[in-house]
Structures are given as C-alpha cells and as structure tokens.
Amino acid sequence: MMAKECTELGTKPVCKYEYWFAGIPSLSGKKKIRLKSQFPDPEEFYRLPIGHIQQIPWLTEREKKAVAAAKGTPEHKLDAQACYCAEKGIKLAIWQDPGYPKRLRDIYSPPYGLFYRGSLPPEDAPAVAIVGARGCSHYGKQMARAIGCGLASQGVSVISGMALGIDGAGHQGALQAGGRTYGVFGCGVDVCYPAAHRELYGAIPKMGGLLSEYQPRSKPLAMFFPQRNRIISGLSDAVIVVEAREKSGALITADFALEQGREVYAVPGRAGDPSSQGTNRLIQQGAGIFLSVGDFLKEMGIFADFVEDSAGNQKFSLEKSERLVYSCVDLSPKSLDGLLAETSLPLGELIEILESLREKGCILEVYKNYYIRPEPSGFA
Amino acid sequence: MYRIVSTAIVCGIQSILVQVEADVCDGMPAFEMVGALSSEVKEARERVRAAFRNSGIRLAPKKITVNLYPADVRKTGTSFDLPIALAVLAAYGAVPEDYLEGILFAGEVSLNGEIRPTTGILPMALAAKEAGKQAVCIPIGNRGEAELAKGMAVLPAENLNQVIQMLETFHKDPEKAQNARAYERMGQGRHREGDCDFSGIHGQKVLKRACEVAAAGRHNMLLVGAPGAGKTMAARATATILPDLEEEEALELARIYSVSGRLGQREGQFFARPFRNPHHTISAAGLAGGGAVPKPGELSLAHKGVLFLDELTEFKREVLEVLRQPLEEKAIRISRSGGNFCFPADIMLIGAMNPCGCGYYPDRGACACTPAVIRRHLGKLSRPLLDRIDLTVEVKRLPLAELIGGGTEETSEAIRNRVQAVQKVQGKRFAGSGISYNSQIPVPYMEEFCPMEQDARKLLQDSFERLGLSARGYYRAIRVARTIADMEGCGQIRRVHLMESLMYREIDRKAWEL
Question: Is A207:A174 a contact under the CB 8 Å cutoff?
Fold first, then answer.
C-alpha cells in the first residue's frame, strides 16, 4: 500500500489525512474549521496524543469522544479510504481550497469539506434549488420537471436533494434540458439513495455533480437529512418550494434559505389541498409566488429577456361528447368511477371516449384508471 | 363360528370397501382385534362390549377375534363400531348370516347401544352403490346424506336392538324399506336470500360490472380498495350471481362436506355455490387440506364456488403460494405417509386487499404512505399468484349521497340470469374441448376461440407496449375481452371490449404519481 495516496484538487494536494479529518463524524463544520486553524497540518493532528484533545476547552465531551474515536482509526484504513475515493472518482473540497463554493462560505454553519463526484456548481452562474415533498402529486411532479427544464435551459444550475418526488423531478427536468444539476446527499456520495433513483445517480455526475459533507460509505441516517438541507439552500441563490405538506422537510430548506438570506419562492396550490398546505403557508408568510419560469427569472434579475414558449397551449378539435369528458378531467387525477358519475355516460361509451382523448394526447392515464390533463398550460 | 360384514373406509373423498371378519370359538375368554387399526378403531372393542351389555344382549364368554381387511389399509375413524358389533353378533349366531348379505354397515356405537352419526357416510354410500349393495345401514342422523346416493335402500339405525329388528324386516320384505326424498330434506333451497344481494349495493357501477364479467367467465378477481369500501359485500354478492350447481356437481360437493363432517352447513342450500372466506391466519394445511388423515381444506370446501380471501396481503406468503397449483389443475393433491389423496378444488378466487399500508391510496388526502411502503405492501403478493388473477378492480369509498341514494338497483337474480346465458354460450363454444369457461382458454387455442376485429388487434398491440403488459397479462386481457364480447352477444372481440378488459388489468406497481 502506498504510504501517501494523494488526489489533486485545484493546486493543492489532498492527502489521506485530509480525507480522514473531513470525514470525522459528529463534529460540526465550524468546530472543524477552528481545529484546522489551531492544527494546520492534519497529519500532525492525527498523530497528536489524545491527552491534547482533552485540553481543548471549546470542544464538548461528546465531540472529544468523537475525535478520540476517529483518531483510533489505524493508518492502513486511511490509505484504504483514500484509494477507495480515487477509485470511485470521489473528490474532496475543503474549506481553505479556492475551489470551495463561495456561497457556502457565507452561511452560518458551513460544512468543512465537501465530498463530491462530478463537479461543483460554478460560481459565475446562478444557482436555484428546487425542493418539495417526496409524496407529491402528479401535478407537482410535472411542475418540478418543467421548472427544472426551464431553468437549466437558461444556464441556471439546478440544485436539489435527489429525493423521490419533487427533488428527483427537478433533476430530471434539468437533465432533460441538457443543463447543469447538482444533488446534495444525506449519505456518502457513493451510496445511491434512494435506490429507485439509480438512473439519476448515474446521470447527474456527468452533467453536474453529487455532493455530500459526509464521508463515503456513510449510511443515509434520518438525522443527516435536515442538515444537508442547509447545503442545498446554501449553494443556491434562490429556493423554489414546489409542493409541501404542512410538516415537510422542504420547509426546513426554506427556513435555512431565509436564515442564509436566499430568496424563497413557493408554487401556489389550491387552498385546502393537503399536498400544497406548506407552500401556501410560505406564501402567506411572504414568500415569492412562483408562476412561471420567465416571471421568476425576471424577478430574480437573471434573464430579463426570457421569452415564454407558448407551444403548450395546443388547440384540440373535439367532438361534443369528448368535450364533455375532457371538461371533467383536470390537473389532479380523476378516477374512472368519478368520471362515470360526473358524465353519466354508459361505461362502454366513456372508455371509448377516454381512449380517443388519450390518443389525441388531450389526457394522460397516470395510474391505472386515473386520468389527468397532461401539462399545466403556460409551461414549455 | 365365522362371519363377515361389509363396511367402508373414507380415503380422500373416495371410499374403499372393507370387510369385518369375526370368529368366535371356545378358549380363554378374550376379544382380539387385528388389521392395521388406529387407536380409535381399537377402542371400538370397549364400546361394543358395553353396548351389548346395556342393550340386554348377553354373550357367552368365548374367544372373539375380529379382523378388518384389506389389512394393508390403515383403518381410522369411528364408523367401524356398528359393523364390528354385527359381525360379532353374527359369529355368535345371534343374527342370521343372510340378514347381513348385500348390506353395508357404518356407524359409531355409544355405550348404551345407540348409533351415533359419523363423517363420510355419503362417499361410503356411493361406494356401496357402485359395488352393487342393496342397502346401507347407517346412523339415523346421517340418513339424509345416505339417501343422496339414490337407488339403494337406506336402513336408518337408532340402536342395536332396533338394527337387529330392522334387518329382520328388511330381509323378509325389502320393498317395505321406503326411500325418503333426500333432496327435499337437503333443501330445494338454491340461493341464500339475505343481505348480500346486488340490489343492496348502491352505485359502484364499475365494481358491479367487473363482478358480472368475472362470474360470467369464471375469472379470478382481485378487489383493491379502502377499508369499508364494500369489498367483502361485493365478493359475497358475486357468489349469488353464479348459476346453480348441476346435480352432479352438487353431489361431488356434498361428498367433500360429508368427509369433513360439515354437510349440515349445506342443508337448505344444496344447489347453491359455496362461498368460503377463511380468516387470514389460516395455515397452509387449513387451506389446502391436510392432517394425518387428510381432510379437505378451504380450497376444496369452496369447490365449484367462490373462495374469498379478505386482506390478501395479510396471509402468510407460503399459504398463498399453496394456491398456485390448484388454481391451474382445479384439484389439490396431498401426499402423506398414509397415501396420496386428491381433493377437487375448482374454485373462483376472489381476493381483497388494501392498496397500501393505511388503505387509502391513491386518495392523497388520506394516505401518507411513502412509495417504499406501498411497494413493500404490493410486494407481499407474488407475481405467479397475481398472474392467475384475471381481473383487478378498484373499489372506491362512496360519498354518502350515493350510498343512501335512491333508485332501485338490479337484483342478483336478474344478473344471475344474464350470467347463466353467457355461460351457456361458452358451453356451446367449448363443447368437446375439455374446458367450459373463458378463463380456461389455453394459449394455443386463443386464435380459434378469440377472433378479433382488426382495430381491436391494433389497440392490443399498442397497449402491450404502452402499459408494459407481460405475456400473461396480454392473454388475460384477451380472455376477459372474450367474456365481455360474449356478454354483449358478439362473436368477434371488438375494440371496445378490449378497452374494457384493459380497464381490469393488474394494479400499477409503480405507485405514487398522483
């Protein structure tokens, strides 16, 4: 095994001790930065007798224990970790590096190091976070995808958490537009979580990056996720909450965003709709109202000359009975039973009309026997 | 003296004739019994001895030997008491030999000489009839059951003394033994009238239609819906729209119930299709049948009728997997050390389950299950089992207005008449091909039995890709469409029939887009 496995980042070599130091669990970024200023060489710190650590007055007992435990890691494991990172293409940006995202430097509790695959968001391009509930509606998912697509096509970096639902849809939209997108993890960047997003996990590093403050191989623990939300908002200039229930993790991101002085936008939902209660509440509390990508970009002062694509408003020629059925279908899914009751058509006739509407592309079957209008109009 | 008496033993739902030999000779007084006897058959000795004494029959102390043959069949059950008692009496000369000829005996004897009812009398009576016996002498409590095997005198036994007298009368004048009208006793009743008529279910048009389609083509059906949406009610109602049993079917079913000692449950509804709904804690043996001496399980008790499994996802996985083979073969084979048994199990399976852990998906207002939870919930059912279910229907909770809403609904009887007509059409089509319902059409015969209009074929091909159907799902859709076409009186499957059939396709596994 090599004695000192190093990876290049920018100009500064990052050695195995840096990986080790950045990966110490249960120690906040702020404390790590303070430790680093006291012990600039991580190798020296690694070799420092545990007695010295006990003397540091500003470390709590718990933190001292965590550091002591980390210092117990044998040297060969440090080598192995560095090799593993090199193998998986996992890079590390630490606080002092010039490549460390500037936006993060300003936040209250910045992460000490960022493990990442792919690249970090560029400083000169605007970055917007798209967040929302995992359990979202079809409408919410479509909105997130459309927003991701619209922003990314204008060169905005789309940041999110790669969770199921809104987050994933935001990433998908950005990828669809061929733009940059970045996923912030609550686990090691080598862990694909959730497993259902294997495709995104493979695609995002090519078009942007996956980042995490937790060392590789960290498991996705529930306590990590609220913390990673501060990085999502911290990396962004604005946060758009697409859909959130009254108590949603996405609202934590919004809170962080306000703390960090980022703009918060919410996509309005129908009053009383449980999956939009959180976003509507944000609007009540003064969040920006997200109506369209163009509006948003203008308000943010990013692209004043953004022209809305109006191809979404198609004209259909429908027969009378088709119009009747079409008028009953809206943006939230309607069941066959519901349509049957609303239209009072016989079953055979109704399914024939639904089939022809589906063929014309006027409606979409989103779930077995549930129908919806395909796109929120006004979105490309 | 040596005498021989006929009886029978139940083996599965069949019956094998068994001879009881008795020999009485001088020597040390003893009562020996041999011939592969289980402990309850050995106990017959004590019961018979006490019964003799209490009936006032005094026998001289002699050496009695009783043998049951064929000796390689293990004898179990309590129906040997009566034949043993009569063989011993005959061997003592208390009953003339020719009184016993051509009669099959079965029954349990109590210590005071009374004859008690026992299980499996119907298969025994049928076996006796097949073997050319003139009469069966059975407990009076099993009389109706024995009379179902028409064309044979039934001698109902009340107690030992009465049996001896009855044998004498029967010997002198066999004509005097009259046969009661058993079918009347079992009940002309065809359908349970009551709470589960379709007229009691308001709204739910799609559900009702699906039930009718399922019943018409005898398709297995899965009901998916929120708790309290009416899944159980729909399943019960479906059993009432199945046409009555044919006489032969009814008799086969009676055999099964006779063997498991439940024929009483069929009283008054002899021709009604059975409806069984075992609780989800049932064991594999309870469902398939089993025990040291295998008895029919719920699968067989639902033979020719409906097996309803409520809360399908709560059943133990290995229990559900038991269903796979019987659903294909319409029978269940059980192998035990005592031998191989085959119980018929031609069932229509109706399953009911909640769409997710809490039961309210896809109602996003009420359901907060995560996609992973839903996936896990649906994953409790194995694919091979789902592949055997032709129709999947969502049952919605009704708004109150619709629930109590006016308007009269169609009765089960009206629907049953339609179903009957559709089954007749199928019977005509499949005559001589070994199948009788659309759900049984084998893949190689699809083209022959399911001609399709051109645009229907195109729709099917398009849907195959759009909906990601499996090969099995593809053929299921055709079979169901065939039934729908039959219901509409069309020889060819039309586009609209296929559309409806696709409406009943399997539940989407990738949940969570609503």
Answer: yes
Architecture of the domain defined by B198-503? 3-Layer(aba) Sandwich (3.40)
Interface test with B, best of A139, A225, A337 (most B CBs within 10 A): A337
- Would you state the pLDDT for residue A11? 36
| CB-CB neighbours of B450 under 10 Å | 18
Whether chain A has a CB inside 8 Å of the CB on B458: the answer is no
Q: Is B205 on the interface with A (CB under 8 A)?
A: yes
Instruction: Write out the residues of chain A at the interface with chain B, using a CB-CB cutoff of 8 A.
Output: 134-135, 137-138, 141, 164-165, 194, 196, 274-275, 332-333, 335-338, 340-341, 347-348, 351-352, 355, 366-370
Q: Is A181 helix (H, G, I), strand (E, B) or coil?
A: strand
* Last residue within a domain, chosen from A300, A330, A361: A300
Say yes or no: A264 and A366 in one domain. no
Number of structural domains chain A divides into? 3
Place of tokens 């430790």: A35
B500 and A CB contact within 8 Å: yes
Nearest-angstrom CA–CA distance, B281 and A16: 57
Say whether A236 sits in a helix, a strand or coil: coil
- Let me know whether A353 and A256 are in one domain: no
**Host H or E run for residue A370:** strand A370-372
CA distance B397 to A180: 45
CA distance A131 to chain B (A): 17
Taking the Cβ of residue B407 and every Cβ of chain A, the question of whether any pair is shorter than 8 Å is answered with no
- Examine the fold and report which residue of A70, A89, A108 is the final residue of a domain before the chain moves on: A89
> Which residue segment(s) compose the domain that A333 sits in?
320-372
CA distance A298 to A296: 5
Do A80 and A146 share a domain, yes or no? no
Distance (Å) from the C-alpha of residue A346 to the closest C-alpha of chain B?
Answer: 10
Looking at the structure, do residues A240 and A134 belong to the same domain, yes or no? Answer: yes
The residue extents of the domains of chain B are 2-185, 198-503
Show residues of chain B in contact with A370, CB under 8 Å: 362, 514
- For B244-304, where are the alpha helices, taking DSSP H only? 247-259, 284-288, 298-301
Regarding an ipTM greater than 0.85, the answer is: no
Which residues in chain A have Cβ-Cβ distances shorter than 8 Å to B369?
Answer: 135
* pLDDT tens profile B187-246: 555 555 555 888 888 878 889 999 999 999 999 999 998 888 888 889 999 988 999 888
Report if residue A131 sits inside a domain. yes
Its pTM stands at 0.76
Q: Using an 8 Å Cβ cutoff, are B39 and B89 in contact?
A: no
Residue of A nearest to B484 (CA): A348
Q: How far apart are CA B275 and CA B272, in angstroms?
A: 9
Pairing mode, strands A238-241 and A127-131: parallel
Q: Answer whether residue A201 shows pLDDT above 70.
A: yes
Whether B271 contacts B244, CB under 8 Å: yes
- What CATH number does domain B2-185 carry, 1.10.3720.10, 2.40.50.320, 3.30.1240.10, 3.30.230.10? 3.30.230.10
